[in-house]
Amino acid sequence: ATKGANLPHDARPWISSWKQDARVRKSSQHGSTVTILVQAHRHETQLLHIICGPSANDASNRPAITIAMRQSPPESLPDAFKLVASQLRPLDHSIKELVGTDHPVLAAAAQHFFALAGKRFRPTLVLLAASASGGGSEADPRQRRLAEITEMIHAASLLHDDVIDLADTRRGVKAAHKIYGNKVAVLAGDFLLARASVLLARLGDVYVVELLATVIEEMVQGEMMQVRATPSELLEFDHYLSKTYRKTAALMALSCEAAGVLGGHPPHVTAALQAYGRHLGIAYQIVDDMLDFTGSEEVLGKPALSDMEQGLATAPTLFAAEEHPQIQEVITRRFKNEGDVAMVSDLVRRSNGMSKTADLAISHARQAADALGVLPPSAARDALLRLCFDVLNRSAEPRALEGANVAALASPFPTLVRSSINSPWKAAMPAT
Q: Coil, strand, or helix at residue 76?
């Protein structure tokens, strides 16, 4: 910040009271060190410079920041996407080249998702994990390639998911299988995974290959858990959280861990990165499940209440079922009867289901933040902390541009994933 910049709130009163020619003082706001340089002349105080240093840890060696929902992040925490914007721009270009193929239809289908991409959440996560574990230095070439691979795996999973879920749209535009057909969409996903596998092997680290291969395994197992769940499993919170880890959080957890491995960092650092990605990913999906009840189709880019329409019970419904037992029967029959979705939606809104779900998301976001305590303070670590706020407060993924020629838009990635051997998805449940 420079002269005239907005000061942290608790620093403003200090400026006018300083009478010496020059003085540097420190103030603590949300755990951040704020260094302020001022000059007093003829009873007037002028701001010369303000530097917000990285957030410190508290006595428990955890970042001294309280993560909360519906609360703006501290001004000292940098925007995660802006911090790595210079690294993301060439990444977008290189992905287009990496997924090139001689077959035009396959290429168009494979590139379909990248044309709709928003902020590149997962590659941003990998780049920040690489930087934060290295004390703030930028990701190296192998870690940047890992970010590309991670996005390719994510894109492949969405191509397959839309076919399995019979989805009509993705981020407000036609899903790939609605344009190119089921077979081409599935093959495009397979192609991305194959290309990602080749790129992954070229990183030259067997353990990183294992990690990302495990991601793919976890994603498949998560999908099978969703499709083949028994009536009793549909009512179990452990089943819901395990599925959530596998389908959503495993990619974040293991790609963050892989970034640390490629950086040559010790096990306690890579384990912390995995824990961060795991809890952030679970919080991300829980908030997504809340948005399914509170968002509109225009905002979400898909129909509201689509989870129940697909026969899925998520956290708000499971919590509501504790207060309204009649919901359990509806869950076990996967909302198949006419009026089931409307009835359960009404009961969820009349229950504490949404507030308990919010508490669960906050719990995981805070555990994600706590995991960063072993990393050295840096702007990258602060950006990872900022993501904990962003995940809790997001409204939905950015929609694609209206009227965009989807087939013409491009930016493809290959994919490979790994999931933790013990599938460490569990987290402390908030008190109810």
A: coil
| Contact (Cβ atoms closer than 8 angstroms) between residue 132 and residue 77 | no
Q: What is the pLDDT of residues 25-49, one digit of tens each?
A: 333 333 444 434 344 444 444 443 3
As a whole number of angstroms, the distance between CA 326 and CA 12 comes to: 56
Confidence of residue 80 (pLDDT cuts 50, 70, 90): very high
**Three-state DSSP class for residue 39:** strand
Answer whether 215's CB lies under 8 Å from 254's CB. Answer: yes
Instruction: Report how far apart, in Å, the C-alpha atoms of 195 and of each of 110, 150, 259 are.
Output: 11, 12, 19
Give pLDDT, residue 57: 87
Query: Whole-model pTM?
Result: 0.80
> Tens digit of pLDDT for each residue in 242-279?
999 999 999 999 999 999 999 999 999 999 999 999 99
Q: What share of the chain is helix, strand, coil (3-state, %, to 5)?
A: 60, 10, 35
Separation CA 98–CA 414 (nearest Å): 7
Q: How far is CA 431 from CA 25, 267, 345, in A?
A: 41, 32, 24
Give the distance, in angstroms, between the CA of residue 398 and the centroid of all CA atoms in the same chain.
Answer: 13
pLDDT at 426 exceeding the cut of 50: no
* Residue 424 DSSP class: -
Q: Which of 223, 404, 151 is nearest to 301 (CA)?
A: 404
- pLDDT for 32 equals 41
Q: Which two tokens stand for residue 367?
A: 């555990």
37, β-bridge pairs = 24, 49
To the nearest 10°, report the CA torsion of 343, 344, 346, 351.
Answer: 140
How would you write 56-123 as a 3-class SS string? CECCCCCECCCCCCCCCCCCCCCCHHHHCHHHHHHHHHHHHHHCCCCCHHHHHHHHHHHHCCCCCHHH
- CA distance linking residue 228 with residue 220, whole number of Å: 12
- Which residue(s) pair with 344 in the sheet? none
Q: Average pLDDT for residues 314-335, to the nearest whole number?
A: 97
How confident is the model over 170-196, as pLDDT tens digits?
Answer: 766 788 898 888 898 899 899 999 999
**Taking Cα atoms as reference points, which of 105, 192, 95, 103 lies closest to residue 148?**
95
What are the structure tokens assigned to 150, written together? 């991670």
Indicate the SS3 state at residue 169: strand
How many other CB atoms are found less than 10 A from the CB of residue 424? 17
